[in-house]
Amino acid sequence: MFTCFTRLGIWICIAAALLAGCVRKEPVKPSQQSASTMKQEDVQSDKEREMVILFQGLVQMDKQDHLAINRKQAEELLPAVRRNSIVGELSMAEQQIIVGILTVEQRRFVTDYQNSVHDHIQAMKDRKDMDELNKEERERMVREFQLRRQEQGHQEHNAQESSNADSDAPLPPSDPARKSSNNVEQRLIRLLENKLEVEKK
Q: How far is CA 48 from CA 12, 99, 139, in A?
């Protein structure tokens, strides 16, 4: 009798082990992990692109005489621009905060600028399906995008220095912050800081 119970217990243990093996959770496949990572990178890239487009729109807007950023707006914009520049991306909520500081005419200019850039991006996507790009092509496009940002910021920086040469309050050429203004975020920050400095004098 005891032997029967012993054998029964052994069979129960074996059956339990087999069941445990059957319900064991399958590991996440590398392809699934890669797809998830790529999707997160695409979202981050989109947010960074939106930040660059908005900031560039603000810089272009300020060049218009009737749309120039005033001191009060500069005070409100500067913290938000700095915050997003550090994070390196722009959420929809942050964009609404920044745009909400602008006047109706300024918003219209920025919106038109954003739409123009988005149309250009969409045209590029139509010519070549972005989803079919391989890893090397994606990396190349990211490098080109970053290079364009740096070159654009450098060109605007040189133009601003040339303009300030005839100003009553020129910026000191030895300022290290200005030398490092090689992208649109830093260019916009310096633009806002300059407006506050000029108003104080």
A: 59, 17, 15
Two structure tokens written together for 72? 């009060």
Asked whether residue 116 is assigned to any structural domain, the reply reads yes
The answer to whether residue 1 sits within a structural domain is: no
Residue whose structure tokens are 């560039």: 56
Tens digits of residue pLDDT in 50-107 = 999 999 999 999 999 899 999 999 999 999 999 988 888 888 899 999 999 999 999 9
Please, are residues 57 and 98 in contact by the beta-carbon 8 Å criterion? no
The two structure tokens encoding residue 121: 């991006």
In a domain, 113, yes or no: yes
What CA–CA distance (Å, rounded) separates 112 from 67? 14
Which tokens is 24 given?
A: 């064991």
**CA-to-CA distance for 201 and 5, rounded, in angstroms?**
97
Range of the domain at 181: 43-162+176-200
- Residue type for position 115: N
How far is C-alpha 144 from the chain's CA centre? 15
Q: What's the whole-number average pLDDT of the chain?
A: 74
* Helix, strand, coil tally for the chain in percent (to 5): 80, 0, 20
Residue 11 placed within a domain: no
Average pLDDT on 6-29 reads 53
Domains identified in the chain, total number: 1
Q: Over 60: is that where the pLDDT of 145 sits?
A: yes
